[in-house]
Amino acid sequence: MSIQEYFGSMVFDDRVMKANLPAGIYKSLHRTIERGTKLDPGVADAVASAMKDWAVSKGATHYTHWFQPLTGVTAEKHDSFISPSPDGGVIMEFSGKELIKGEPDASSFPSGGLRATFEARGYTAWDPTSYAFIKGKTLCIPTAFCSYGGEALDKKTPLLRSMEALNKQAMRILKLFGNKDARCVRTCVGPEQEYFLITREMYDKRPDLRFTGRTLFGKKPPKGQEMDDHYFGVIKPRVAAYMEELNEELWKLGILAKTEHNEVAPAQHELAPIYSTTNVATDHNQLTMEIMQKVAAKHGLVCLLHEKPFDGVNGSGKHNNWSISTDTGVNLLSPGETPYENAQFLLFLCAVIKAVDDYQDLLRITVATAGNDHRLGANEAPPAVVSMFLGDELSAVLEAIETGAPYMGAEKTQMKLGVDVLPKFNRDTTDRNRTSPFAFTGNKFEFRMLGSSNSIACCNIMLNAAVAESLKIYADRLEGAEDFETALHEMIRKTIKDHKNIIFNGNGYDEAWIKEATEKRGLLNYRTTADCMPHLLDDKNVNMLTAHKVYSRAELESRCEIMLENYVKTVTIEANTMVSMARRQIAPAVEGYTLKLMDAVSKKRALDIGLDSGYETGLLKELSALTSEIARRTDLLEEAVGALSGTVEEQSCGVRDLVLARMEELREVCDRAESITAKEFWPYPSYGDILFSVK
């Protein structure tokens, strides 16, 4: 079977709907999907019947409302299609009511105080803009998830709200420019997904990987990523086989997996899809992470999605490539050949610049997790300071507008490679900046701060809402302007002047930049989740998000509570795992090696073959001291965890200020012990064993 034949074969997509639904029903549903209009309740029964018949023909026996609670992963409860028939058999049924609404038990999902403990009921509601699909023998229906009182308990609902908010304000702007063709504006996303692949054998021998997703101990191997020989290198056969099956499974689900390659660190790889509408891209990315792990298991591998699974080598991120387009196919962030004269582009560009500057704290909050805190600011990830890269051409355009100076245009430079047979082409007018958290890359922005396990819903909710706020301010002013052209020019110029501090085209890794950003430009530098998360409830953020009906205040308070609680729980689990590993295996291993070495020295003396050398004496002293120090630091870490108390915000500060420091102190001494303990005594596979285990 060709790719064209099986691509989307497990998706109830537009092709299937058009072939299986009555023309009127299809037209109504298609209008909802394409334009975001209200769903006609009358179409539900017909859609449910066709969906069930199609799913059963594909071998499905059950259906589920597939949703994204505030756990960071997806959830599903399976119900069979069967209903009893009068003759004692069964019939296959699925009604419009079952399609539209489900009623799962919400009692064990995080709510952050949105419901009382005894209030268990929650609802799932069909999202018709995201296609249903079959996974295994189950028809999965993408849905929103809310409490009995109607508050959002998921990530899809606020995302859809933010898309509506941006659409509303963007359409106001387009009308001012005389656009009568566009009927809606959507944001589109293409998330690049980084990950590690290691063997199941290595994974099973590391309690830290099994319990936390990252290694809590481990000294750097003699060779890591120093030679840059893994990046874009030849893909190993076992990894290639994994990637081949992964592509097939993703393509069956209509997920446009496009690019695959080795990343910088040993055992690290990347997958990138083609762009999709934001809510669909979010669903697809959640599915991608799930399928990556399932396919890995079939190949005797484990897919690690933690942001920093190995200390000292690159961690894994997820680059969120974001753009704005009309339903007529116009990319509103495309500069065209003459960006200086493209007023519509410049206004939308300024809306993004203003949004990122005004709400840099919200963007930082959306990527705040215990895992990503280890990655941000390291040499493979942007710093925790949010800034924007625009490149030379657009920076020159904005400077000319601000100062009123003439813009001469970007000079086209032909690349001269010195070999006649190589093709000639013009160099781009701007380079890429891989150190920037928020970089313009031609006709889109790449937000590079996300961690590899993050849901992309969170950053896109805030980005959509913040840009909607900028566009609202612009539309309010321009709609009442006496002279549209003059008001437009002044608004663009004022935005550039007021928000140019957020634009930085240099090296984001430079220590001097962090100092300049915080001390001279007044940009925010929230290093940890505990630092940034409480700012979600700052008045300016609450006012903006509630005004656009993306969140209610109660929903924001719940999310702040949930994220801080998750941070505390994550680090507490890591700390407890370290205590167990150090006390039960590492310290005994060092002690065991010490005793063997002492025995060897005693035998030498007994046989009168020479006193022990200075090397042996020194090694014994260091091993003995390390054993005592491991025990002492283990006790201190356990005490730090036990001392956590108070509100969840107070506990998060305790984690940040004390627990993490004690974890680092224990790791330091254990890693030193690993470096001088004989391999046969060390209880865990080393970094070298793990990172180079896949052949």
Overview of this structure, please?
With 695 residues, the protein is of the alpha+beta class. It folds into three domains: 3-154, Glutamine synthetase, N-terminal domain (Ubiquitin-like (UB roll)); 162-410 and 435-551, 2-Layer Sandwich (Creatine Kinase, Chain A, domain 2); 567-691, Four Helix Bundle (Hemerythrin (Met), subunit A) (Up-down Bundle), CATH 1.20.120. The protein is 48% helix and 12% strand. The protein is built from 23 helices and 17 strands. Strands 9, 10, 11, 12, 13, 14, 15, 16 and 17 form a nine-stranded mixed sheet that branches. Strands 1, 2, 5, 6, 7 and 8 form a six-stranded mixed sheet that branches. A two-stranded antiparallel sheet has the order 3-4. Strand 16 (438-440) and strand 17 form a beta hairpin. The chain is globular and about 100 Å long. The protein starts with a helix and ends with a helix.
Topology:
Elements: H1 3-6, H2 14-20, H3 23-35, H4 44-57, E1 62-66, E2 78-80, E3 82-84, E4 90-92, H5 96-100, E5 101-102, E6 122-126, E7 133-135, E8 138-147, H6 156-176, E9 185-199, H7 200-204, H8 207-212, H9 237-252, E10 257-262, E11 268-273, E12 276-277, H10 278-298, E13 301-304, E14 318-326, H11 343-358, H12 360-366, H13 370-375, E15 388-389, H14 391-403, E16 438-440, E17 445-447, H15 456-479, H16 484-499, H17 511-520, H18 529-532, H19 539-547, H20 553-606, H21 614-642, H22 648-676, H23 687-691
Helix pairs in contact: 6-15, 9-10, 11-15, 11-16, 12-15, 14-16, 15-16, 20-21, 20-22, 21-22
